[in-house]
Records
---
Amino acid sequence: MTMPTLESDLVLVNNTESVMEITLNRPDKLNALTNAMYRDLVKLLKAAEQNEAIHVVLFRGEGKSFSAGNDLVDFLNATPGEAGGAAHFIQAIHDFPKVVVAAVQGNAVGLGTTMLLHMDLVVASADAKLVTPFVDLGVASEAGSSKLLPAWIGYQRAARMLLLGEPMLAQEALEIGLVAKVVEREELDATARNMAAILAKKPPRALQASKRLMRESINKPLHQVIKEDLALFAEMLQGDEAKGVIAAMVNKSKGSK
């Protein structure tokens, strides 16, 4: 796989079989994201989307925290009216068609939390805290969180996060569905990597189609969703991917008798 040229050593990438693992590598600054880091992340997502060998992307952060969000110096130096690196990254992760897993430890602040809303499976360590202090910074919430958080966890819980700036601790985040699993810190990377590896072995077209249906169905009436997913199911059932998997299962079943 031809990898894009990255601007810095603050984002690391490692490909293992069909998983691209992206590491935020700025632990001394709690993985606060710079414009250069955002550009690197966009490049990597584009490369992963275009490469058929990559089925899953795994995000993790080096050090004691997943990400402190946007670098505040970059905020101060932002050009008026210009979309910063964060905007391009959020658009890229929102549009990314393949499955994304995240391993989150310590603090996930601002965009460190809202980026997770555009990922598919989030594994958190028991000490993880999701914090969205936008109002305290004098700005409004971003990355679609003003829609997604109230829709997913209810208005009152969303208000605790977006208006009060109250941290959402890992266990509560699990109970209300913001994360998929909570594990001890020492188990975090292994758990997330195992999850990504399991996903990467699944039929890729079916995996991507299922993600797309889940994401798009949020804004569609149920009757339309049923009609569309039944049609897609029937189409994919006749495809080589499904036929190959089903034939292998049938042959295995016959062989076990």
Note: The chain has two domains: 11-200, 204-256.
---
Amino acid sequence: MNKNHLLDVDFSNSGGSVKAKIILFSFKEDDNFIIYSPHLDVSGYGKTEKDAMESFNHCLTVFLDYTVNKQTLHNELIHLGWQLKKGTTKSPKKVNAPSWSDLLKKNTSLEDLLNSHNVTTIQREVAIPM
């Protein structure tokens, strides 16, 4: 993945935010580039890698905005295997994304993706609203 294609989401709300590291996969399928985060189960796509990253950033913002407004973000993160630590479940001070082994156990399609595509990975930090 081109180093210029940075994750451009720094989402927070009145409760603040905490930073968490996530992995992004970049791969090509047919004529489209796909950016996918197994940690958040969010993806974006486009004709170029830059377009795919812009699409991913938009989809991630929509995901965070929707789940914050519906007050379901913390439940969704727990469902995805995240650990919310220190503080309370509603207002954690630290969050940990699921490990690779946990991701592979919970998401059987992930192994297929890794085995069937030439995947580039990159680690990014994202602000998770509290």
Note: The chain has one domain: 17-129.
---
Amino acid sequence: MTCYDRRDLGLLLLRLGTGGVLAAHGAQKLFGWFGGHGLEGTGQFMESVGYAPGKASATAAGLAEAGGGTLLALGLATPAAGAAAAGAMAGASAVHVPNGFFAMSGGYEHAASLGLAAAGLAITGPGRLSLDHALGHTVDRGWMVPVALGTTAAVTAVVVGMRNKRLRRQEEGEQEALFEE
């Protein structure tokens, strides 16, 4: 008989809470559920904050959040799920950084907390109360952790870097337009 310990119960609660919040945010983006704006509205917002094309960016963020969150909650493919969610939250944090840390001021606190929790789960693993454990960790191998996190970090750095470059060009264009007037 398997005896679950405090660590397994704690990881289950952390996975359910973090994964549930991420999945709900992803569903807002993808389907407009829970007061969200769906792909069209989220795509327009993504475009307005420098992520282009907006609809593709909304789809990628929504899938990373909804898919990564659902998989985290289930404890399935935990390295990939945690990495995907952490990458999406890094992209969200980049949008909120100019507003400071605290969420009440529009800061990156919430996104960073979710991203760090997801990355921590990717590294720690899901515990024994998970589908990964029930399936013999076939999609939760040790080598998958650095591969998933490294790949996600590289892709996220490129995407956020392109966004920042796009915003700088836009700002320079606006300044040039002011000088021409």
Note: The two ends are 78 Å apart (CA to CA).
